[in-house]
Specification:
Layout: H1 2-17, H2 30-38, H3 48-75, H4 81-105
Helix pairs in contact: 1-4, 3-4
């Protein structure tokens, strides 16, 4: 159950945190979240190509951060090898599911983003 919640949580987090104006590709700080919320209806900021580009950057950065965090917890002895792998699979699976769903929503006939 915990792994399913991790998977779903990271998928939802990924879709909602993608921010084309951020260097990392996702909203991290409170200021990023405010800029993201203010620019939701700005056509020049929320283009489909911009969202896809930000999603690719976001996937790369968040995957590296998740991997390093879980390797650190394994090295510190917090989790065993099997549990670390299961958590990593759930987190990365959720990030990839969020990325794929964002790609699907921003396809040419998709309803998310502006052309």
């Amino acid at each position: 159950m915990m792994y399913a919640l991790l998977f779903a949580g990271f998928a939802i987090w990924f879709v909602f945190s993608v921010h084309p104006g951020s260097l990392l590709g996702f909203a991290l700080t409170g200021g990023d979240w405010l800029r993201l919320l203010r620019g939701l209806h700005a056509e020049e900021k929320q283009t489909k190509a911009g969202l896809r580009s930000a999603a690719a950057r976001s996937l790369a950065v968040q995957s590296v951060l998740a991997g390093l965090g879980l390797l650190g917890s394994y090295a510190a002895g917090v989790h065993g090898r099997g549990e670390t792998f299961a958590v990593l699979a759930a987190v990365l699976g959720g990030l990839v599911a969020g990325y794929v769903s964002l790609l699907w929503m921003t396809r040419p006939r998709g309803g998310y983003g502006y052309d």
